[in-house]
Amino acid sequence: MPSRVDPDPQSPILILGGTGTVGSRIVHQLAAASIPALVASRSGAAPESEHLTGVKFDWYDESTHDAPFKAAGDRGIRAVYVIAPPIIDSGPVMKAFIDLALAKGTRRFVIQSSTAIAAGHRMGMGQIHKYLRELGNEGKADWCALRPTWFQENFSTQANHIDSIRNENKIYSATGIGKLPWVSADDIAAVAVKILTQKEPPHTEYKLLGPNNLSYDDVAHELSQVLGRRIKHDDLPREDFEQRMLAYGMSEDYAKVMANLDHAISLHAEHRMNDTIERLLGRKPKYFHDTMKEAMAVWQ
Questions:
Q1: Is residue 141 predicted with pLDDT exceeding 60?
Q2: Which CATH class is domain 154-180+211-271+286-299?
Q3: Where in the chain is the domain with CATH 3.40.50.720?
Q4: Where in the chain is CATH 3.90.25.10?
Q5: Contact present, 185 and 245 (Cβ < 8 Å)
Q6: Other C-beta atoms lying within 10 Å of the C-beta of residue 287
Q7: Residues 6+ apart with CB under 8 A from 37
Q8: Is the pTM of this model over 0.85?
């Protein structure tokens, strides 16, 4: 069994994908709480803070995988937030990194998966969820899988949505009238910080959902209210939506998966509700309308 790093306040937390939608929010929340963190990204950049250190990290370049541990030095890394690279078969490279971290003495891993990806699913996060659960059952790691539904921020961060809202007054999907409980990245990050820093080992998974179920038609209505102009939802056949994703540079296998996930929403696979965020954070999850108001300048 690997030696366990002393989880004292000087041992940093490693955030993979530290400049992304959720990762950047975790980083800011940790810094605000004066908790040291390593911000891992291909650029190696980090926000200016005495509590943050940027490290170069690229899933596709294994020569960078030891960089966070060199940056941590003798303090070690007390916990890792794991965000997968955008490829289907990311399991092997993530497993290799987790094994490296275990060998270096890191104990806790919090992975960002999805409501659509259960433990054992063929996609990388499903495989790593299963692997970490097995390690936890063997007493070799503390783990937690966060399984959020679709992000509210997708419409203000993804080029396909930004372009269509700004230039066409449209949003596109293959979801029909299916509804889902859009969740804010701010809430995902807040849950992540809680799990990364709490004393008790989590050893569980959490589905993270927003406060209400909205279809893409509902989203278009919310955007129309915020922007003061009519935004329309254009529902595409699954194959056409897949082609749209390909046109925005998505790989063929990933575009097919995303089209299939949209189709599953049309069959009501994501129409669900729970009180997990409220139980963990002691407050209601953020409403879609509020997130859209904060981001409205993006679509002007």
A1: yes
A2: alpha beta
A3: 13-148
A4: 154-180+211-271+286-299
A5: no
A6: 17
A7: 12, 13, 14, 15, 18, 26, 27, 30, 31, 51, 52, 53
A8: yes
